[in-house]
Predict the structure.
Amino acid sequence: MDKTRELIKAIQNEAYSYNTSSDLDRIIDSIGDAKFVLLGEASHGTSEFYTVRTELSKKLIEQKGFNCIAVEGDWPSCFNVNRYVKGYEQMSSHEALQDFNRWPTWMWANEEIRHLTEWLHDFNQRTDRRSQKAGFYGIDVYSLWESMEEIIKLLEKNGSTELEAAKKAFACFEPFHRTPENYAVSAAFYGEGCEKEVAELLLKIKNKWDTARDQEETSLNLSINSLVTVNAENYYRAMVKGGPDDWNIRDHHMVSALEEISKHYSQDTKLIVWEHNTHIGDARATDMQEEGLVNVGQILREKYGEDQVFALGFGTHSGTVVAAEKWGDDIQVMKVPPAQPGSWEDALQKAGDGNKILLFTDKNRDLFGEFIGHRAIGVVYNPEYEQYANYVPTQISRRYDGFIYIEKTRALKPISLPVQIT
């Protein structure tokens, strides 16, 4: 009980109120010269997490020269948005989001993202940084079949000699009818995988296209889709075996994708990353480490140094959220119950009403270094049972460099799209 009171007092002393966009300026100042700014979320269905990240991203792009937003989404669908925001193709913001047709569609096909893409489009129209327009990219690993299709389209469009080799390599996947689970079982347990084919193809494409540049980022598009194909194949093989490998393959892939984007722009480019707290907050400050799990936040800190990475966590005490009870089910607007007693979110609420921002420094990190339950909501969620599965033991000030607490939150506003359930 004494530790709880000490934590609440520390929050009262160190946090400041968050009411307007200008209250985010201290975060921008604290970011300094970091190359990677990682913006988290405690769920995949909360409006405020998206709108606040949008405000932060605008400030980083306008004031600090950031020019890439990379999100926890599929590369092909996000690249369609990139075509829109960079003016490669004439379309509306709603049309740009039509490619997000695979469950869970609401993560990126929502009104909050539509407003962000419209702002990016307008910024790119007026900016003087013509060679460094702000882009929007997906760095996740799930789009195996979609990425293979994109590679074929790109090779056909450019009359590439690698086209027949690509078709032959991808024919290996045809018996599995776009079903990752079928491929995973066959590859993992029967040795009927396509690892060799896609690895050899990637090498051929990379050697030829690595130095290619064009106005519509064809080389980057081809490179990342090839990377997805190789890593997704590896991911699905690992998925059915259990253990930490599939998670770790996914997060290492995300880092590799970030590095490919960085190399495409220039080595000194600065990137904004939108992902769940479980990816951007350093895994070494949670119980993930005990399970052999790593994540994007940890890998980037270890590889580039802590001064080059700024991780911002997000959380809420209560409200509503968009989620589903089972994978592939219809989405619902669900109530987020008040945070569990003794949790990080509970302490934030008991420290006083209102939204809060905490910035962790050498002077105050020790005040928030004890392990405490920290809520995490995914695309699948059951509020009745959240106390058993939705709280991650966390050293908050080691996991993040700052934290934004929104006391009461609302569900995202999905855009109606045709849904393909997988």
Notes: Residues 418-422 have pLDDT under 50 and may be disordered. The chain has 17 helices and eleven strands. The radius of gyration is 21 Å. The first strand starts at residue 16 and ends at 17.
